[in-house]
Amino acid sequence: MREHKCNSKPLFLNGAAATPASPSNKKFWEFRNAAETGGTAELLLYGDISRTSWWGDEVTPQAFAADLATIPAMDDLTVRICSGGGDVWAAQAIGAMLENRLGTVTAQIEGICASAATIVASHCKVVKAAEDATYMIHPIKVNPNGFVDMEGLKQLMDALTVMRTNVLNQYAKKTGHTVEEVAAWMDATSWWTAAEAKENGFIDEITESNQTAKIENRNGALFVNSIAVPGTFDDAPEFVRNRAVVAPATTEGFVNNTDPAGKPDKNDGGNDMEFKNADELRNGCPDLVKEIVDEAHAEAQKQERDRLAAIDEIADAVPSDLVAEAKYGDKACSAEQLAYRAALDAKKKGHKLLDDTEDDADTSGANSVGGAAPDGVSGTGTKNKNQTDAEKRAMVKNLFHPKKEG
């Protein structure tokens, strides 16, 4: 069990799996009513429990409760679990809501039920598991979010103690064993087969599975049915490691490889679809493609709004024709590029002014008119051509880059 950071507050986790972070408003659960399943309503918990913030954004206990309320309270509910764990608070909240239902709540473990996922399962009235499923419990851990002083550390210890007590009491209630017995199992980090978990009281019934669980070693990480499990592959017990064999990725059963596999299909526990081009992806996963395209469009629109806003901020200092070209012309550009173009334009105009000034002076004969010599200095008083040019260039330069006073 370890802590997950969210909104700068420590969140205690019971074995959060090492999967990529999901969008902050992404639900980690899915409900299916009886009409969709053709039988009993279902709650799917595949992957981390609260990979996202359970307490922030749109993913909240209230959101879960609202979804649960769409299933009539008297109806039976099957909770399908293939999870490596997650947020302890989320697991306890979900478990309490499930336990308070009037209908029978049955947990069906598919592949792996580890860490915080076992808290949810322990709240269910009946717990079933596929005969090749794996069950694991281990201690709660916390990783403080940043530096912690003595008082902060004490508060974390107090919270950890309360959390541990609650989980142990729930395990004892489910199994019929004493708190001391289940505490010994937890502290030892216990991995069990379905039969062993049943013997210890965590599972009530073992069921046959139509599909064999797939165990993988992905660069040292343990995955079951494409779900990440706490710890490393080597941390798993021998009975788990031995069931991972070298085989082609498309072979049914256990696979020991480093090829990434997708999130398991919630109907069959796996998805071996392979797409060779964009058209196949569009046809095979139209909803996913639409989501990606919509996100890309939204991001493009945001970037365009930001670009125009940045140009507007410097528009007063830039010629209007350059601003129009930068915004809507064939050579549209960013505010930074517009500033560079404006600098080049000013430089060109400065050179032209200098050349025009020299031409006017030559035409009027001003360059041939001598100046009075300073007192005590002999000479004709006529400056040479190079001096005149230098002064003119300095004058023009000062128009565009005036010297600071003082």
UniProtKB/TrEMBL annotation:
Annotated spans, Disordered: 253-277, 355-406
Keyword annotations of the record: Hydrolase, Protease
Pfam families in UniProt: CLP_protease
Gene3D superfamilies reported for this sequence: 2-enoyl-CoA Hydratase, Chain A, domain 1
Entry-linked SUPFAM superfamilies: ClpP/crotonase
Segments of skewed composition (Basic and acidic residues): 262-277
Xref: CDD domains: S14_ClpP_1
Database matches in InterPro entries: ClpP/crotonase-like_dom_sf, ClpP/TepA
Single Gene Ontology MF annotation: peptidase activity
GO process annotations (BP): proteolysis
Source organism, top-level taxon: Bacteria
Name of protein: Clp protease ClpP
